[in-house]
């Protein structure tokens, strides 16, 4: 899970998976509306490379 959230929640015992899924869904929606945005493409590529959890969501 830490690869998915980039260490932002390392100090937390439980991450609200519902909220996390909502964030991932929002990111994917943003990608859908701007698929050629280089920043979005870079973040998406990094997440797909480092996070199996992101890929599964």
Helix content: 55-70%
State the shape. globular
Radius of gyration: 12 Å
Alpha-carbon distance between the termini? 12 Å
Number of helical regions = 4
Q: What is the strand content?
A: under 5%
Overall pLDDT confidence: 78
- Per DSSP E runs of 2 or more residues, the count of β-strands stands at 0
Q: Strand count, sense and closure of the main sheet?
A: none
Order of helices and strands: HHHH
Description:
This protein is mainly α. The protein has one domain. It is built from four helices and no strands. It has helices at 2-5, 17-33, 38-50, 52-56. The longest helix has 17 residues, at 17-33. The protein is globular and about 35 Å long.
Top keywords for this entry?
57 residues, mainly alpha, 4 helices
Architecture blueprint of SSEs:
Layout: H1 2-5, H2 17-33, H3 38-50, H4 52-56
Quick description:
The protein has 57 residues and is mainly alpha-helical. Helix content is 68%, strand content 0%.
